[in-house]
């Protein structure tokens, strides 16, 4: 059911130029592959600055196989023969916009498309104020993709705050890892990013990874960074706020050991819980 692999999270710095962002993604993925990664993840909004004012201008129609980001990621997946969780991009679909992640297999085929389910609307006095729902529509599907290593559960950033969603993904035993492209900010990042990633790992006895944009203090939305990989014990490795790659061997014996000794997955009391 599980096969070990090497995971690389590309914490990239995103600029105003889509072209530059696509070449940066190619460069970082190339470095991750040189270090032996079989699965590489990009951040939320990796081809566009994060922010509702940018989404329409950077959006792509992914039903068109020649759309620039889709075709770039497809070629990179084929070139290196790896899985790519393509962060997310603003997607235009009919007259609606979504925050969308495309997942590619080593043959360059799209094996999953996740549209962010929980839109990030938040207003913290003196801190972050963001209303994705001004522009975006929410996705309505839980996304699980099948790979030769295990099934991956996919969420985007704010989706991490919802334990019900993480359980929806990880109740299938063959889901060994939850992957969240993200872009927390300087208000909630320091307080909640690591906490939420570790909580979801321990709740579900699963690996969890959050791949952030690198911090750009010139941007209108300043990313927290600190891409992170958590094991099923809740132990984590992370990097700082700068551009870089976090690499870890994902070894499933650890997951099996914890599931065999801590039984919270089996002790759930759906007869007591209320919706
Ligand atoms: N882009 C996002 O979804 C940000 C989520 C976030 O920062 C949070 O606190 O939640």
From TrEMBL:
GO terms for molecular function: omega-amidase activity. Residues 5-252 form the CN hydrolase domain. InterPro entries: C-N_Hydrolase, C-N_Hydrolase_sf, Nit1/2_C-N_Hydrolase. GO terms for biological process: asparagine metabolic process; glutamine metabolic process; oxaloacetate metabolic process. It comes from the Eukaryota. This is CN hydrolase domain-containing protein. Pfam families: CN_hydrolase. The keyword ATP-binding does not apply. SUPFAM superfamilies: Carbon-nitrogen hydrolase. One of its GO terms (cellular component) is mitochondrion. Gene3D superfamilies: Carbon-nitrogen hydrolase. Keywords: Hydrolase.
């Amino acid at each position: 059911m599980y096969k070990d692999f090497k995971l690389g999270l590309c914490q990239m710095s995103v600029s105003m130029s889509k072209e530059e962002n696509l070449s940066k993604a190619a460069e970082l993925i190339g470095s991750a592959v040189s270090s032996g990664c079989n699965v590489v993840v990009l951040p939320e909004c990796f081809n566009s600055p994060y922010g509702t004012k940018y989404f329409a201008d950077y959006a792509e129609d992914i039903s068109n196989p020649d759309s620039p980001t889709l075709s770039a990621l497809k070629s990179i997946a084929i070139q290196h023969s790896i899985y790519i969780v393509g962060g997310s991009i603003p997607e235009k679909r009919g007259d609606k916009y979504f925050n969308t992640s495309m997942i590619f297999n080593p043959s360059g085929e799209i094996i999953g498309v996740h549209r962010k389910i929980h839109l990030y609307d938040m207003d913290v006095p003196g801190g972050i104020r963001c209303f994705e729902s001004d522009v975006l529509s929410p996705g309505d599907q839980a996304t699980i993709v099948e790979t030769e290593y295990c099934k991956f559960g996919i969420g985007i950033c704010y989706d991490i705050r919802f334990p019900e969603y993480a359980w929806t993904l990880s109740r299938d035993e063959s889901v060994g890892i939850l992957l969240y492209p993200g872009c927390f900010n300087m208000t909630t990042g320091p307080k909640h990013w690591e906490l939420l990633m570790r909580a979801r790992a321990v709740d579900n006895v699963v690996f969890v990874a959050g791949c952030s944009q690198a911090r750009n203090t010139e941007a209108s939305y300043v990313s927290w960074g600190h891409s992170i990989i958590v094991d099923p014990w809740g132990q984590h490795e992370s990097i700082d706020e700068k551009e870089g790659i976090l690499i870890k061997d994902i070894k499933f014996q650890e997951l099996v050991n914890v599931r065999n000794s801590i039984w919270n997955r089996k002790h759930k009391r759906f007869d007591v819980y209320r919706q």
